[in-house]
Amino acid sequence: TVTPENSTAENNAAVFALKRSAKAVRDIASSVEAVTAFLGKSTDKTKEKLSLTVKEELCSTCPKYEFCWINNEALTKKAFAEAENKVRENERLLYDDIPERITLLCKSPARLGEAFSRAYSMHIAELLALNEINDAKKTAAKSFLCAGDLIEDAIKTLDSPDKRDTETEELLSPFFEKKGFSLHGLHAAVNSCGKKAFQLYAGNVPLISDMNTLLEEIYELTGTLYLPPVVDEYSKEGTVLSFTEEGEYSVEYHTASHTGAGEKYSGDTAKCFYDGTGYFYAVLSDGMGSGGRAAVDSVMTCILLSRLMRAGFSPEAALGTVNCALLLKSGEETLSTLDIMRFDINSGKAEFFKAGAAFSVIKKRDKTLIVEKSSMPLGILTDTLFEKSEIELSAGDTVMIISDGAAVIPPTMYKEI
User: Fold this and answer.
1) pTM of the predicted model, to two decimals?
2) Contact 83, 98 (CB under 8 A)
3) 95: phi then psi, degrees, rounded to nearest 5
C-alpha cells in the first residue's frame, strides 16, 4: 500500500488503514489487561488457603477427623483461622501461638504448627511466582501498545508528506540504473525547510568503492550536494538508500570507551549516525553492573534503538519498544541507562532524551551548561519513563555525553575543565 509510487489519494487511504491498525493493536492490549485483571480476581483463593493445605496434609488421615471436621466443624474452622492469622503475622507458627482448642484436642499439635509454617512458605513462593507471571503478562500487553505507537509514528510521515520532486526523480532514475542498481522505485521530495532528499529502493545494490565520487556525479547532475546515504533494508529482498541534502550544520564526533579493572569488556556502548532525513543522533547506553553481562544489555539497547530510528521512528516510539524488548529478553533482571541526543542539522535544535542516564555537558562560546534529568533506567518498569529537554546549538558548540563511569567527576569540575 505504501510503495514510493503511490499518489496522494492512495496515501490518504494508507493513513486511514494504518490508523485502524493502530487502534486494533491498542484494543488488543486493553483486552489482555482487562481479562488478566478479571481472571486474577475470580481465581483468588488465598483466603483459608493455608488451613485447607494443612487439613489435607494432616487431618485427612487422622482418626479424629470426623470429630473435628464434621461434629465440631465451626469450632475447628475458627481455631484454624486463628492459627492462619498467627502464621501470616509472624511468618511461622510457634507452639505457644497454637490456639488452645487445637492443643487440647489435636493428636499432634506440634506437627500441625510445622505444617502451617511449611504451608505458609510454599504460599509465599507461589505468590512470588504469580507476581512474575503477571509482570510478564503486563509486559506482553504493553508490547501491543508499543506496536500501536510505532504504527502511529509511521502515520505522521504519510499524513503530512513533503512536496514531491519529480524533476530529481527523472534525473536520477536512469543514472542509478546505469550504475547497476535494480530499481524498485526512487522517491524524491523537498521538505518544509526547502531541503531536498530522496530514497532509492533497489533489489540489487552494487559495491560503491568511492562514495565521494558518486556524490560528486549526483551534484553535477542535480546541482545539489547530498550527504553520504543511510543504508537500510525495507524488505527481505530490498535495500533502501536515503540521501539528504547537506544541512546548515555538520557534526564532528568522537567516542572513547574504557573497561573496568580486571574486566574484558566495557559495559558502555555508543552509536553516532545520520538518519538520512536531516537528523544526527548520538546514542549512549550503560548496562547495569560491569563486564560482559552489562555489555550485552547496552549493546542490545543501542543496536535496537539505532535500528528503529534509522528506519524513521521517533525516539519516543523507539524508546517504548526497546523497553519492552528488555523486559521480555530474559527472566533475569535487565537494566540499561539510555542517553540520546537528536540534532537537527538544519535548525540547530538539539533534543536530549534520558532514561537513568548521567548528566551531559554543553560547551558554548561564553558558558558551559549541564543537562541533568532524573528518570528510571530502561527494562525496570512496564511504563517507559524518560526525561526530555531541548537547546539551540550554534557553530562551534561542543556536546559531551557521558556514562556513570565518567560521572564520578561532579558537574562543577566539568564546568571548570
Assistant:
1) 0.69
2) yes
3) -60, -40
